[in-house]
Protein: 2-oxobutyrate oxidase
Amino acid sequence: MTRTIPLIDLDDFENAATHANFLEDLRAAARDVGFFYLSGHGISLEEIEEILALTQAFFELPDDDKLMIDMINSPHFRGYTRLGNERTNAGADWREQLDLGIEREALPIAPDSPPYRRLYGPNQWPEHLPQLQPVIENWQAKTERAAIRLLEAFSLALGQERNALANVYCDEPNHRMKLARYPGKTALHSSNQGVGAHKDGGFLTLLLQDDKGGLQVEYDGVWLDAVPVPGTLVVNIGELLELASNGYLRATVHRVIAPPAGTARYSVPFFFSARLDATIPLLELPAHLAREARGPESDPANPLFRNVGENVLKSRLRSHPDVAERYYADVLEKRRTAA
Ligand SMILES: O=C(O)CCC(=O)C(=O)O
Ligand SMILES: [Fe+2]
Structure:
């Protein structure tokens, strides 16, 4: 049994000489640890440095600038979240962040529209950092491309057609991302929780982290450190891929430990999901893989929904109770009375 997080090179996918081994390594990495480092993702070191520098510049803006784009202004869960205002696994997280999604107009909402339609809409951009928007849009395009290539590779590795999952993201792939800053511990805040233990809700997460470390992956009952590897992204499986593969692949539990006093850690997670109106298919696995599929995990505290919009909305409502109360009171009320 390995106890290290493997490295996968996406360039090996398109190369006839390495294609078959690549698929086998990908399947094994995703099945075993559920986390891997990714190179060959098509993003240059300059682009990585550029987005990390702008992430830092964003958090160095005066508080007033950041609070002007507070997430509480946005029914689409876009914008700035102050330290301590986000919750994971019933604890307060210790990071500040800017949440971003696909830039588009809000959809018209009718009384019987599914609530997840409220998730579509514009971002909130900081007025005094105009360089940010083009850099984010470039990052979204590049990571989306890498995520789609990976999903194609996963489909093949699971014995499917290359585009077996395409109809759940085609035309309208959906994703969200954030810029995050984890401050070091202080006398006032000595908890270890940067972000509490959780699974990601989408298909795949492609995360850029700086060189500080602190990301940990649960593997066979122990926490493994996802030690930073320069130039790579860290990829993990989300709940939608767990559902599609009938639990053959598992959405991996992970967390972030707060950095030591006097330092800060920056990260840029990108969460690739699917059309919000899509339903996740159950892939028919070849017999030798189907035998090893455990079924999706059933956790009453975290139900997994095949309806993409519902699954995405579930984690948004849980992470940002203040935004939920303001714009989704009707949904919360319905869930309370149904419970
Ligand atoms: O910042 C990180 O390294 C991980 C963040 C994370 O797991 C998340 O936002 O879902
Ligand atoms: Fe996560």
Notes: Residues 237 and 251 are 5 Å apart (CA to CA). The chain has one domain: 7-338.
